Amino acid sequence: MAALSMLACFVAVLLCIRTSRTDTKEDEINPSQSTSATSQHRTDSLTILMLLGLLLLTILTVWLFKHRRFRFVHETGLSMIYGLIVGAIIRYTSKPMDVSRDYVRAKIISENHSYYTDNAPTALYVSFFARNSSADPTIRQYDLGAPVDEPITEPPLERTVTFDPEIFFNVMLPVIIFEAGYSMKRRHFFRNLGAILMYAVVGTTASCLVVGGILYGTTRLMHDITFSLNDCFYFGAVISATDPVTVLALFNDLHVDVDLYAIVFGESVLNDAVAIVLSESVEVYGELSSDSFNTEALFQSVGKFLGVFTGAFAIGSLFGLSTAFLTKFTKLKDFPLLETALFFLMSYASFQAAEAAEFTGIVAVLFCGVTQAHYTYNNLSAESKDRTKKLFELANFLAENFVFLYIGVSVFTLQPLQWHLGFILSSFLAIVVGRFINIYPLSFLLNLGRSNKIRPNFQHMMMFSGLRGAVAFALAIRNTETEAHQHMASATLMIVIVTVILCGGFTTPMLQWLQIRVGVEEDAPGQMNQLASVRNQGGGENGQQPGSTPSEKAWLVAKWYNFDTIVMKPLLTNHRPTLIETLPKCCLPIAKIFTTEEQLTQGLGGPTDHDSDTDMIIDENQLSIGGMSDHSQLDQASVSPNHQTGRKEPLQFDDGDLGQFEADDKPLTP
Amino acid sequence: MAALSMLACFVAVLLCIRTSRTDTKEDEINPSQSTSATSQHRTDSLTILMLLGLLLLTILTVWLFKHRRFRFVHETGLSMIYGLIVGAIIRYTSKPMDVSRDYVRAKIISENHSYYTDNAPTALYVSFFARNSSADPTIRQYDLGAPVDEPITEPPLERTVTFDPEIFFNVMLPVIIFEAGYSMKRRHFFRNLGAILMYAVVGTTASCLVVGGILYGTTRLMHDITFSLNDCFYFGAVISATDPVTVLALFNDLHVDVDLYAIVFGESVLNDAVAIVLSESVEVYGELSSDSFNTEALFQSVGKFLGVFTGAFAIGSLFGLSTAFLTKFTKLKDFPLLETALFFLMSYASFQAAEAAEFTGIVAVLFCGVTQAHYTYNNLSAESKDRTKKLFELANFLAENFVFLYIGVSVFTLQPLQWHLGFILSSFLAIVVGRFINIYPLSFLLNLGRSNKIRPNFQHMMMFSGLRGAVAFALAIRNTETEAHQHMASATLMIVIVTVILCGGFTTPMLQWLQIRVGVEEDAPGQMNQLASVRNQGGGENGQQPGSTPSEKAWLVAKWYNFDTIVMKPLLTNHRPTLIETLPKCCLPIAKIFTTEEQLTQGLGGPTDHDSDTDMIIDENQLSIGGMSDHSQLDQASVSPNHQTGRKEPLQFDDGDLGQFEADDKPLTP
After folding, report:
1. What is the least distance, in Å, from the CA of A554 to any CA of chain B?
2. For chain B, which end, N or C, has fewer CB atoms within 10 Å of the first or last residue's CB respectively?
3. Residue B23: CB atoms within 10 Å
4. Same domain flag for A198 and A301
5. Where are the transmembrane segments (chains A, B) (predicted)?
6. Which of A129, A142, A322 sits opposite B144 (nearest CB)?
7. Is the Cβ pair B107, A109 closer than 8 Å?
8. Where is the domain boundary, B482, B513, B544?
9. ipTM surpasses cut 0.85
């Protein structure tokens, strides 16, 4: 009933928009600046209202599905479908309208002579002359921004529904990506770090090259569209960003195998960062070389890739570490609201700082999120832990649904788009091949060194779960200036829609068909024992990280863990062991400065090996509302105590995994 | 130490901005579209970073003050002072720069002949001609928006720091005002409803007229500035909005007398709404009459006032009631994230709906907040109650501090401003007289009918606490087109700064000097007994509401409470009594439809007269971090159990105050 009444309201809003547009038309007969501004404002409000209505409808439908235990469509898919329907309605019911009369046609001229330019101007100075007077004109400045770039007969409503892609980059994506980083504090993530880095960095680059290559080949065969080599690799980078949202929500729901979960999750989050930086590097290459191969440009773009990635990593981590430092050494904890505000502002500042330094804000925010989760979270008061979790969870939910809703609407309203069936089909082919090259050969290589092999059914599932989502869409619509980019945007739209609906919908049957076990509790005793036995088997340094490749990688990871345990965590968090315990005696004066009283009185009652990765930022059941639903219905009891534990013992510390390192470190402690 | 290191970072950012500006200058030598866009983006990021840095600095300083128990400066005052300092640095260290070369000067011409316009254009079509070719030019559309309207030699940094006032109206103010409405669920507020409405509606209108009148008189004496009668009343409306933030934070801190608190709080929140609508009505009057008195225009503007107020009230309440309805009749409660998202989206939709219907969004959002608190809050799951509280608390904290920071920066960077000492001084005189007329005569009238008199020392305190803040500032900078409006903006800025710093700083001494008792616990037994005895004294209908005027008002309020208890609350919330119990027997079938099972099984264990106004949305100690600080330090124990109670008994119901009505209603219930 509620959903029905909601639907009625929604239809009313849509009717309102139609009426409002008729009003606008009447206004035009008597053109007046303030009237047209008012009616524009009204249309904007109605558009936002429509999107809000769609979001509300999605929420109610999702609730209905969950309530009836109908698990075929995920909420993001649903948002997209609603968006598609409304986009189609807007597109096919609106008649082209004349442009409002008080728009002024202008030809750009300079002071005295006509001035023809092919650079878009960034500001306009208009001289206003007083009527029947020879007084000096008043000059007013207008900011121009990017051209709206539309045929004049286009219906205004479509234009208002299409909004600035920069909103995705500056508001929606940072939220989604930060949340992904903040929820990455998972033991299984770090256990599979080697594999994840391999898939995300090497795999994504390979996928970019393969997709670019295939499309370069196929577009040579199509004579009606022109794609440069650079365009092809740009598209390869854009479309290689896989989406962490939909499949993982279902994995959560079904409690799929934890290693599979960690690998798919880690890969899809990190490869967004890789794809964003890759696409920027390809652009740099394109600017430097003009369609012929250019070694210098290649090195410069590789340099750009490394520079931007390192820079963003450094800035993101720096802001995260500063927050940890501030929360440890001030008693900000006494005022949880101030603490949460600090946390929020520092995280957002990492984004803006990276943008100001001309690195990529989104990548910085990802690493800032990881650092905040790994260090700062341990210092926060119980209230701030709870508040930050809930705040980012809600923001992420809204941003995600908004993005997918907007993807749906865009299919019909985004201008300019070019549709070419051949190109779209060949890009489908290309991403399948690209994904294949990413998964199977790399898995083979990884398995050579892994004691805990990535089984074939896991590989098939990873192949299947390479759907594209928000990041690919945002990258594709960011630049639609050339015809090639307009083709890319339409192909990306189709790929996102098809993969989200198909792969999202068939995840459950696929898991059954591949016989991947579900219903695994992360910390089930059996699992733990199995884990312990794997650990005990590993003797030397190589064996310590059963989930990563041996040789250099494992050694590097082990060294880092060592450093993290001895220096970073004692320095940056309020937990035992303190620096006094971990550093050699000669460093005692320095160690004392960086050890707080709280840290000394902490955890004296018992052993400090309680693993706070079980007290994850985003519990397994909270990553998506999908998971939450089941818990709140099925085992509410098991969630609440967990929650309570989090509140009563907020000062847990994750070194359960690091037990073996601590044993190694014993000689170092006093 | 932390604050020091923060300061170092901040200086680094400021230096960066200066460097970046030098970079921009260098870029100009080689003008290029993409370079200038990049450097603009970089300057924007640096500006945001600077504001974030200031906010962080404010947070750390506030923490330091609280930590050292230094209570003279409130955080909003502090934000403002930091803003002033940085604004001054920006203003007096930056040299005027030439405009970037790739700006294009244009004269508006139509197809064939020059076209002089005094209406600002809303869009620009630029013809791009291919060089050395006779092909048709490409026409691209640019949206113009409002003119930036600045002398060309102004330094660009000042322009970027000055951002669109519409952000205040569409982002910051809705948050602040919604939070005010959402925290209004206070018994003492409703007990003093009559007085609050009197001060807010009658008082604000009187203040607007008095201020307008005085300024009309004084501006006749100043020959160097021109103010129309309409300008004067517009300023009267703008400057009559008092600010709820600063004084109330201190009242909270000190646990000042609850009735005084309720009256000051209620007045300052409601009068924002009144002032906003008043200023719009004055604008309507100005458009219709041209500076001579016009009866028709007067009636139309009064009609506009009533229409907008009623419309906004209706839309806000409607959205609030719909949310209550949805949360009661769906089991959305099982999925707290969905529930919170619904709550958030419905509240924001009320803003956009009112804007689309051409009422005032901010007023709608206020009433939406009140309705959400009064009905919806009771239906929410414990988790959503907690989450919505924390979300809006944080958003409010950030918005408030941002606004006051920005007020500080604006003094030096807002362009265009006109400064006139005589006008500023006379406006100070006018607001003091206006406040005097608002408080004393109305208090006298109110006391005629109140059994619980508003004592003279309360009246003096109300007089003193009429500081101006965010709303007045936002209204004043919204329109700075004419010279008169530029004078208003500068006068408003000065009034805001002086009243926030002076009145904010001297609240504590003033309370002592006026011998107003502090340290009052809202539900202290003595207080309750006193309350009860006042109640028992009142015999007839007039006596039932000791805190409001008798005769019609009390009767109306009583009738509303009656209706609320018998129909609205049973219909819209999940609490006892149900409609089955409150409605007459003939309505039983309807009553059954609107009664949920949860409602029937609810509260059978005990009496339902537990007063949930003690479980307020924003507890006394949460309205500002000021209050929270004391609690978390002094009586943490007393906060935690409260919190726990909220979680364990989330389904309380506020009818403690309505006991006497229920007694009256007995004959109606089956």
Report:
1. 36
2. N
3. 14
4. yes
5. 46-65, 77-94, 167-184, 196-216, 305-326, 359-377, 398-417, 423-446, 489-507
6. A142
7. yes
8. B513
9. no
